[in-house]
Amino acid sequence: MYRFAEDLESVPWEELCDLYEKTDLGQRNPTELQQAFSQSSHVVLVYQDAQIVGGGRAISDGVYYSGIFDIAVLPEHQGKGLGREIMNRLLAKLNKQFIVLTTTVGKEEFYGKLGFRKHKTAMAIYPAHKQKSAKLYLED
């Protein structure tokens, strides 16, 4: 049985960091991750009993623009509709806004099924310490 939460009460931040590392979203610092989620406009976390098994967040100006970030579900819990439910809950909060997200390589089909399309004019700047991973996503 899964439980969805849209607040940050009792989040096991170290465990959430482990989730992101196990899903190839990279290493995270618990303090920084807590700050990022706390400053997000919307969050969705998925628990099985007390264990966090999925999550994601959005930032929004509340009127025009928003972005969705950090969508992940532990590999052993994938294929059960949890990622789709995380996204559906976030999308419902961002109704009628322009929404952007950057998908990890290989997950484009998942987001395509939710209505996302490739954006022809998207641009990005990666910080110096992320240049290695940026090569997967940026054109020369």
UniProtKB/TrEMBL annotation:
InterPro entries tied to this protein: Acyl_CoA_acyltransferase, GNAT_dom, NSI-like
Record-annotated N-acetyltransferase domain positions: 1-139
Entry keywords, A to Z: Acyltransferase, Transferase
Key word Acyltransferase present: yes
PROSITE patterns xref list: GNAT
Domain of life of the source: Bacteria
GO molecular function ontology, one term from the record: N-acetyltransferase activity
PANTHER family: ACYL-COA N-ACYLTRANSFERASE, GCN5-RELATED N-ACETYLTRANSFERASE 2, CHLOROPLASTIC
Name of this chain's protein: N-acetyltransferase
The organism of origin for this protein: Uabimicrobium amorphum
Lineage: Bacteria, Pseudomonadati, Planctomycetota, Candidatus Uabimicrobiia, Candidatus Uabimicrobiales
